[in-house]
From TrEMBL:
Identification of the protein by name: 3-hydroxyacyl-CoA dehydrogenase family protein
Similarity annotation: Belongs to the 3-hydroxyacyl-CoA dehydrogenase family.
Signal peptide as annotated in the record: none
NCBIfam families in the record: PRK07819.1
Pfam family, one: 3HCDH_N
Domain 3-hydroxyacyl-CoA dehydrogenase NAD binding: 15-193, 322-499
Residue intervals of the 3-hydroxyacyl-CoA dehydrogenase C-terminal domain: 196-292, 502-598
PANTHER family: 3-HYDROXYACYL-COA DEHYDROGENASE FAMILY PROTEIN, 3-HYDROXYBUTYRYL-COA DEHYDROGENASE
SUPFAM superfamilies per the UniProt record, alphabetical: 6-phosphogluconate dehydrogenase C-terminal domain-like, NAD(P)-binding Rossmann-fold domains
Keywords: Oxidoreductase
Length: 601
């Protein structure tokens, strides 16, 4: 077997052959031609090659219409692309990018044929996102020139390119392809060879868990998707994204990941197999988790699972006044939200001084809203007047809804609910804002567990639109209806879920963060490359390590321990690196050091 030759000179990658002219191959061809490369498009199907040309003509015409290209630039771009069905057309290429179907047999056959066609120094890149680059390279006559070049769909828009090296890949090949990616205006990240690489390796585990959550009927498809959009700032919910990617494609990627890792989190959820085998593969089929107007359309239409806006069958209890227990950022934010909606708010803390400090924090927040033109000074003053700070929970005697927002400590919360049980009037709704503890444990601390429910707000409460409404098996229907009505009045999007660790958002978010930590722990990729991959390839507003440092490593570790304890899945065990950093006092931005160091304020 040949060994990597780092000193082999590579010709400039000016002529590039793209093998496989589906959606991805066509997009890559457009990106290459736009960057001045001569492109040879090859597909076994004449119809597909013609479809590629038509797609390029249409997309470049749109670019002219939007002022992004001139007619002359469009003509020059299209002239740089030739298409055909004969692989021998790649003979003069400096680089061949293969984006054929995800099959070892198909890809290996292409690479074997290319060995007899291209020059010895030509770089061969596979666009796979699920198969082993090493296995493909080992079957080649020149494994040192084989690597992965994983673009993301749609290739013209997505900035990320994962450059995947095997143990056989020559550094010169990596350097040449990395340079090309930069010339294309992309952000290349260097990764090793394992299924899913970085972006898909983290993304598909999260998507799989979302599918399993839906399959367990823990929450509706609409609520799962809304929770992740509004709670994490993602452009799409996981089930809608699975439909876009293709459920069959997702299953293929997960199968490859599970074969390599044997991590149960990567074992495809049974519903993915059921939908795939039924031909319900997502948008391209017109139906997947959702139903679409036509095959290929992104317009969702109603089906038998669509929630009906017929109004609640059970009326809620009247709520005029709200008690908020706590003095921290979350408590003051929740009090501000209710006061802005016109509710009278009793803000109770362990002392009058702490309650006054919390009200002062609200005043500053309202002043910022005035400065930014979001409300008038009169409205801000009126809102603040609705908040009455107090150092005793006895002042909750007449509230209709009591919302607890104290420390995330089960015993502290149980003691508080026992107090609320004694203080609050009969019929008052008692809500906990816990993000990870069992709501039913708070309910059982009272003599009226039917009146207890979870209202998980997200920080900062005035800005975040989501509230997870958490029913226990004891929660009364009219209590659930009350909280749903209140969420509408405070202009929050309510999603329903049952009482289990992490609810929707944290149950899907923190395993993803934990898996990112494992990647760094295993020296698979750098912090910066992983953060870049998830922002550019996954659409996340923050990379996982940026988010961990903002949330706090200690908070993240506590939530991951709760998830591991409840679900008892080895894959959910907190990464040792996270535990070590917390033990060392590296908790994130609040301590000045977490996964990264921060300037002292």
């Amino acid at each position: 077997m040949a060994t990597p030759q780092s000193d082999t000179p590579l010709s400039p990658l000016r002529t590039v052959a793209v093998v496989g002219l589906g959606t991805m191959g066509t997009g890559i061809a457009e990106v290459l031609a736009a960057a001045g490369r001569d492109v040879i498009g090859i597909d076994v199907s004449e119809a597909q090659a013609a479809k590629c040309v038509a797609a390029l003509e249409a997309s470049t015409a749109r670019a002219v219409g939007r002022g992004r290209l001139t007619e002359q630039q469009r003509a020059e771009l299209l002239a740089r692309v030739t298409t055909g069905t004969d692989l021998s057309a790649a003979a003069g290429a400096d680089l061949v990018i293969e984006v054929a179907p995800e099959s070892y047999e198909i890809k290996q056959q292409i690479f074997r044929e290319l060995d007899g066609i291209v020059r010895p120094e030509t770089v061969l890149a596979t666009g796979t996102n699920a198969l082993s680059v090493t296995r493909l390279a080992a079957d080649s006559a020149h494994p040192e020139r084989v690597l992965g070049m994983h673009f993301f769909n749609p290739a013209p828009a997505m900035k990320l390119v994962e450059v995947v090296s095997s143990v056989l890949t020559a550094p010169a090949a990596v350097s040449a392809v990395t340079g090309l990616a930069l010339d294309l205006g992309k952000e290349p990240v260097a990764v090793g060879d394992r299924p899913g690489f970085v972006a898909d390796g983290l993304l598909f585990g999260y998507l799989n868990q979302a599918a399993a959550m839906y399959e367990a009927r823990y929450a509706s498809r609409e609520d799962i998707d809304a929770a992740m959009r509004l709670g994490c700032g993602l452009p799409m919910g996981p089930l809608a994204l699975l439909d876009l990617i293709g459920i069959d494609t997702a299953r293929t990627v997960l199968d490859a990941m599970y074969a390599a890792s044997r991590d149960r989190l990567h074992a495809p959820a049974p519903i993915l197999k059921q939908l795939s085998e039924a031909g319900l593969t997502g948008r391209k089929a017109g139906r997947g988790f959702y139903t679409y107007e036509t095959p290929g359309s992104g317009t969702v239409v109603e089906d038998a699972l669509t929630p009906r806006a017929d109004g609640a069958s059970v009326a809620g209890r009247p709520v005029r006044s709200v008690g908020v227990a706590g003095s921290g950022t979350m408590a003051s934010g929740i009090a501000e939200v209710f006061a802005k909606a016109g509710f009278e708010v009793v803000l109770a803390a362990r002392s009058e001084e702490k309650a006054q400090a919390a009200k002062a924090r609200i005043g500053k927040s309202l002043s910022r809203s005035v400065d930014r033109g979001r409300m008038t000074a009169e409205a801000a003053a009126g809102t603040l007047d609705l908040i009455r700070p107090t150092g005793t929970y006895d002042d909750f005697a007449d509230v209709d809804l009591a919302v607890e927002a104290v420390a995330e400590d089960l015993e502290v919360k149980r003691q508080l609910f026992a107090t609320l049980d004694k203080v609050c009037k009969p019929g008052a709704v008692l809500a906990t804002t816990t993000s990870s503890l069992p709501v039913v444990a708070c309910a059982r601390a009272t003599s009226r567990p039917q009146d207890v429910i979870g209202m998980h707000f997200f920080n900062p409460a005035p800005a975040m639109k989501l509230v997870e409404v958490v029913r226990t098996v004891l929660t009364a229907d009219d209590v659930h209806a009350t909280v749903r009505e209140v969420c509408a009045k405070i202009r929050k999007h309510a999603v329903d879920c049952g009482d289990r660790a992490g609810f929707i958002v944290n149950a899907l978010l923190f395993p993803y963060l934990n898996n990112a930590v494992k990647m760094v722990q295993e020296h698979y990729a750098t912090l910066d490359d992983i953060d870049a991959a998830m922002k550019l390839g996954g659409g996340y507003p923050m990379g996982p390590f940026e988010l961990l440092d903002v949330v706090g490593l200690d908070v993240s570790l506590a939530i991951e321990k709760v998830l591991h304890r409840e679900f008892r899945d080895p894959g959910l065990a907190p990464a040792p690196l996270l535990e070590h950093l917390v033990a060392a006092g590296c908790l994130g931005r609040k301590t000045g050091r977490g996964f990264r160091e921060y300037a002292k304020r």
